[in-house]
Design a protein that fits this description.
With 471 residues, the chain is mostly helical. The chain contains 18 helices and two strands. The protein has a two-stranded antiparallel sheet with strand order 1-2. A hairpin with a 2-residue loop joins strand 1 (334-338) and strand 2. Helix 2 packs antiparallel against helix 11, helix 9 packs antiparallel against helix 10 and helix 11 (246-271) packs antiparallel against helix 14 (293-326). The longest helix is centred in the middle third of the chain and has 34 residues, at 293-326.
């Protein structure tokens, strides 16, 4: 009960401070800044958006090309191979005009005609003329079967290619005139699946050309299931979208802005928790009470953690509210594989979870600042060291990871702070730079390293606070 009373007293003091009120105002302003920046970019893009429309002038252009090709055929010195090539181009151009297949269209017919310019195939040409999408899929399957029979490809490669063709057929990818963002997204997902299949099949990571580990193989297998789920549910992929989802931009900016300010003010509160009381002499009051020192320190730690949790919860809820009010597009949801099945966390739960995942490193740095405050009893030193470490640890670890390729580097606490990427490994923020500290360690390993680090800081803190003279 004494600890609870001390905890209440600490919270009353913390929330009454002018610095706390100022911190809350600045953190709210950070959320407003993220919202304002997203809306300004949206306004600028919409104002400057120029939609390029291709009219029927492409037909006139093709007719001019046909006349030019026919003039070239009158040249008696023309090689037979060049003559056949020009004749193919004339035939394809005429088919484009007759079947209204624009040079600028994005569909299977345009792709086929582009390929036929170099290698004319009568059967495939007939399929295009008849607008037979299923015939095109079956034709491609026959080609894959021939490659398998001639041992040009393996059975696994054949199965992978058939799976891609089945997906293209089932969801009419490249055939139905979907909204541009959906169409491009589905094509992008197919490309990802193809690359991931190749990595699993060959054992070589397509993104790094390194040997695929068991963990990476499992991740790619899950990614394939997730990408198929996204195709089925028309999930827009911003990497392949023609337009930007500004709600997603806001939901990427807001946590970064807000958590950074929360971290700074948490270190300010923690860094002055003991040293400021020593400098003002109020610590003497606590020493003369019947409360034991460890209880006093515990109450301060709990008060700081409570402060962080409450502020983070409030800001995550406000972030959701702002996104729902100011944007009419769909926000981030988290798609993952559990027990072999694809599942999804909605935007609200994901946003709150994302904020709290980013909060874990902040708590570590707050404890670090409090430890420095106890040991040095100097607010400037504790604040300076903790904030400098918080701001500079990413750059330091990038340099260390680039030049030191030893296993013990994984044990450095700063190399295990990127908890959010391990809690949500399938999520990629629009604001990701690719410079974040990423290691091959698991979430459990990182949490253990951070827990050990926190225990060492707490032991050091309690030992110093209990043994040193505070009067």
């Amino acid at each position: 009960m004494k600890i609870f009373k001390l905890f209440i007293d600490e919270n009353i003091k913390t929330w009454k401070k002018f610095s706390t009120k100022l911190a809350i105002i600045l953190i709210l302003l950070a959320l407003v800044a993220a919202l304002g920046l997203s809306k300004i970019l949206q306004y600028i893009d919409e104002k400057n958006d120029i939609v390029v429309q291709y009219s029927n002038t492409w037909k006139e252009s093709l007719e001019e090309d046909i006349n030019s090709y026919k003039e070239q055929l009158n040249n008696e010195r023309l090689l037979q191979s060049d003559r056949e090539y020009i004749q193919n181009k004339i035939k394809i151009a005429e088919i484009r005009i007759q079947n209204n297949i624009s040079l600028y269209s994005v569909n299977w017919k345009n792709t086929v005609l582009n390929n036929l310019e170099n290698d004319m195939d009568g059967k495939l040409l007939e399929i295009v003329i008849n607008n037979d999408f299923e015939g095109y899929i079956n034709y491609e399957k026959e080609i894959e079967k021939q490659k398998l029979n001639q041992k040009e490809i393996t059975q696994q490669e054949y199965d992978d290619n058939i799976q891609l063709l089945d997906l293209r057929s089932r969801y009419q990818i490249g055939n139905v005139g979907n909204e541009e963002t959906i169409r491009d997204s589905k094509e992008g997902y197919l490309d990802k699946i193809k690359n991931e299949q190749k990595s699993i099949r060959t054992g070589i990571d397509y993104s790094s050309n390194k040997v695929l580990t068991a963990e990476q193989k499992k991740k790619y297998e899950d990614d394939i299931k997730i990408n198929i789920y996204k195709i089925e549910n028309n999930v827009v992929n911003q990497d392949y979208s023609a337009t930007t989802n500004y709600r997603m931009m806001f939901e990427s900016l807001a946590p970064s802005f807000v958590i950074t300010l929360i971290a700074i003010f948490a270190m300010i509160v923690a860094g002055g928790a003991i040293s400021s009381e020593v400098s003002t002499g109020t610590i003497k009051f606590w020493a003369l009470t019947p409360n034991k020192r460890w209880k006093i320190l515990t109450a301060k730690i709990l008060s700081i953690v409570f402060y962080l949790v409450v502020i983070t919860l409030i800001m995550s809820i406000l972030s959701i509210a702002c996104a729902n009010i100011f944007f009419d597009t769909e926000g981030y949801g988290y798609i993952f594989v559990k027990n072999g099945n694809v599942e999804k966390i909605g935007n609200t739960l994901f946003t709150i979870g994302y904020y709290f995942a980013k909060l874990i490193p902040v708590i570590i740095f707050a404890i670090f600042a409090l430890m420095l405050s106890v040991i040095t009893r100097n607010t400037s030193v504790s604040l300076g060291l903790s904030i400098a470490t918080y701001m500079g640890n990413s750059v330091a670890m990038l340099i260390i990871n680039a030049y030191i390729k030893k296993d013990w580097v994984k044990l450095i606490p700063f190399n295990n702070l990127n908890i959010v990427d391990k809690v949500f490994p399938n999520f990629q923020s629009m604001m990701s730079t690719g410079l974040e500290n990423t290691t091959t360690t698991s979430l459990g390993f990182s949490l253990i390293v951070l827990l050990v680090c926190m225990i060492l800081m707490l032991v050091t803190m309690y030992d110093s606070f209990n043994k040193r003279d505070i009067i």
